């Protein structure tokens, strides 16, 4: 799951990520009667999120006109930075590849076309985004986690912030297929 950074019990953010990645904490998300899923975790890692985002962009050429590829950048003592093809490794960046605010038109596009990644583009019930299961280099602090924020950024914030939510991830078995019917995904073998 996390491949570039080794978690340690010495830092608060590593402890949070360890809990998010502990599959026993999220087993209730598996439907044991259907055997669709192998395991569940509390949120995608930065690597998982970036790989999924970039795969989606490669399948939808119109998306690459606005949004750049995002990838895990370098790591330091406390965790990850994030990078795109248009920027140096940073503590955060907008999906348009710059540190400038993304336009309201593009935020609307994020919410309508990319809701799997950005379910909301404004505060929703006092929630501003969701955690990624990856520690952040975060300006030299050991308590920051990577997050996906409603303003169109992949960034970092304090691990004790209560204004960010979770988006658990279930790893499906290889013989399971998913089809979308309206706004609902149907699983089948």
Descriptive report:
- The chain has one domain.
- The strands form 4 sheets. The chain has a 4-stranded antiparallel β-sheet with strand order 4-7-6-5, covered by helices on one side. A two-stranded antiparallel sheet has the order 1-8. Strands 2-3 form a two-stranded antiparallel ribbon.
- A hairpin with a 2-residue loop joins strand 2 (70-76) and strand 3 (79-84).
- It is α+β, with helices and mostly antiparallel strands and 189 residues long.
- It is built from 3 helices and 10 strands, in the order αβαβββαββββββ.
- The protein has helices at 12-21, 46-59, 104-113; strands spanning 37-41, 70-76, 79-84, 93-94, 129-135, 144-149, 153-158, 169-172, 177-181, 184-188.
Q: Which key phrases capture this entry?
A:
189 residues, alpha+beta, four-stranded antiparallel beta sheet, two-stranded antiparallel ribbon, 3 helices, 18% helix, globular
Rg over CA atoms: 17 Å
Output the number of helix runs.
3
Helix and strand succession? HEHEEEHEEEEEE
Report the uncertain regions: none
Q: State the strand order across the main sheet.
A: 4-7-6-5
Q: Count structural domains.
A: 1
In whole angstroms, the N-to-C terminal distance is 25 Å
Mean pLDDT, all residues: 86
Q: Class by helix and strand content?
A: alpha+beta
Number of distinct beta strands: 10
Task: Give the strand content.
Answer: 25-35%
Shape field: globular
Largest sheet: number of strands, sense, barrel closure: 4 strands, antiparallel
Roughly how much helix do the residues carry, as a percent range?
10-25%
């Amino acid at each position: 799951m996390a491949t570039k950074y080794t978690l340690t019990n010495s830092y608060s953010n590593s402890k949070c990520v360890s809990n998010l990645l502990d599959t026993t904490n999220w087993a209730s998300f598996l439907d044991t009667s259907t055997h669709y899923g192998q395991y569940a975790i509390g949120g995608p890692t930065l690597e998982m999120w970036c790989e999924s985002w970039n795969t989606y962009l490669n399948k939808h050429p119109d998306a690459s006109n606005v949004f750049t590829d995002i990838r895990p950048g370098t790591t330091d003592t406390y965790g990850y930075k994030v990078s795109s093809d248009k920027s140096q490794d940073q503590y955060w960046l907008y999906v348009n590849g710059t540190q400038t605010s993304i336009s309201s038109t593009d935020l609307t596009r994020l919410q309508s076309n990319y809701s799997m990644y950005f379910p909301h583009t404004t505060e929703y019930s006092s929630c501003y985004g969701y955690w990624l299961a990856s520690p952040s280099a975060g300006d030299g602090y050991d308590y920051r986690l990577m997050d996906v924020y409603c303003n169109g950024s992949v960034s970092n914030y304090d691990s004790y912030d209560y204004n960010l939510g979770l988006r658990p991830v279930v790893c499906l078995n290889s013989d399971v297929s998913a089809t979308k019917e309206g706004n609902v995904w149907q699983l089948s073998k």
